[in-house]
Specification:
The chain is an alpha/beta fold. Helix content is 53%, strand content 15%. It has three domains: 14-43; 44-112, no CATH class; 120-300, no CATH class. It is built from eleven helices and nine strands. The strands form two sheets. Strands 1-9-8-2-5-3-4 form a seven-stranded mixed β-sheet, with helices on both faces. The termini are far apart. It has helices at 8-44, 50-67, 69-82, 88-110, 112-115, 128-137, 153-161, 176-187, 198-209, 240-248, 279-296; strands spanning 122-125, 142-146, 166-170, 193-195, 213-217, 226-230, 233-237, 252-260, 265-270.
Length: 311
């Protein structure tokens, strides 16, 4: 009796399909596992006041950065680049404060709609706000440049309270649970919310040309960028904000929402617009502006950006 023939092509396709299913299952399960600690922290404290929930998550993340070895190494690696003589004890204390700020910031972004109702916790100052209002009166848009410092969403909250809704550029998350909550929270602060990439860039240009304001966090590593100093060290930096400001004759305003007091209050400062010269000079001016803020209060910056990798 002749043995049945096996189709090696069909067999391979079936195995490939099963392999893809297994990969998707493992990836989905891992995303759930990664999100579970944050979900648990948010759910377990939801009966508390906004400020107490924010501080609770801040305390949890602060403990994680101080005691969890992987987090310790990641933050210490970056701190020692900038502060090579910082003692281990000082790094441990600073990691805890960094974590507290990170946790509170994350909570406030995830609850963006509620955060926007707390304008009584925000004070603001600086000539950049008047410059944006002048641009609006002239039918022009504007570009806010900031960084992962303090609570950057406080900047957009102030703009909204002055009738100047600001869109934002953000980097999508690979974990769908984080992505869903992050996007919803950012959208509560103003639209349009544009993902990094070519599609987002085209929509951003249309928004600016139509007289809109866009907020860009300009302190992330940009592999296709230019090598220039940040916190005294070379870092790959995007010139896009300055290029847009020059091309469309828009004010480029550095703005920061610094966390103060008990951690639930903010001081937003709109610095004077960066003078229009060339993209390199303008971007370096922003790097210097943000660097000064971080040197004055390093606990307010997000030290997990791998800012100097690849430079």
């Amino acid at each position: 009796m002749q043995a049945p023939r096996i189709n090696p092509i069909g067999f391979g396709r079936e195995n490939g399909h099963i392999g893809r299913m297994v990969t998707r299952f493992v990836k989905s399960s891992w995303n759930h596992v990664r999100y579970l600690p944050l979900w648990s922290a948010l759910v377990s404290s939801r009966w508390r006041s906004f400020a107490r929930r924010s501080r609770a998550l801040g305390t949890a993340v602060g403990g994680l950065l101080r005691w969890f070895p992987i987090a310790q190494r990641r933050v210490d690696r970056e701190l020692l680049r900038v502060y090579p003589d910082m003692t281990r004890r000082d790094r441990a204390a600073l990691r805890r404060e960094i974590g507290r700020n990170m946790g509170q910031t994350l909570f406030e972004i995830y609850h963006g709609a509620e955060f926007r109702t707390r304008l009584d916790k925000i004070t603001f100052s600086g000539p950049g706000l008047a410059a944006l209002e002048e641009a609006r009166a002239a039918g022009k848009g504007g570009i806010i440049v900031s960084g992962h410092f303090g609570q950057w969403e406080a900047v957009r909250a102030v703009l909204s309270s002055h009738g100047m809704e600001s869109g934002a550029v953000y980097k999508p998350q690979t974990n769908p649970h984080y992505q869903r909550r992050l996007l919803a929270g950012i959208e509560a602060g103003g639209k349009p919310i544009l993902a990094t990439g070519r599609v987002g860039t085209k929509a951003l240009v249309r928004h600016l040309v139509d007289g809109g304001i866009i907020s860009i966090l300009l302190d992330e590593k940009y592999a296709e960028g230019v090598r220039m100093p940040f916190l005294g060290l070379p870092a790959m930096t995007s010139l896009s904000a300055a290029q847009l400001a020059l091309k469309y004759d828009l004010p480029m305003v550095p703005a920061y929402g610094t966390r103060v007091g008990d951690g639930s209050h903010f001081e937003v400062e709109f610095e004077a617009p960066i003078p229009h010269t060339d993209a390199l000079t303008m971007t370096q001016a922003f790097n210097d502006s943000l660097s000064a803020r971080i040197f004055a209060d390093p606990a307010q910056w997000y030290w997990l950006l791998r800012r100097w990798d690849g430079a």
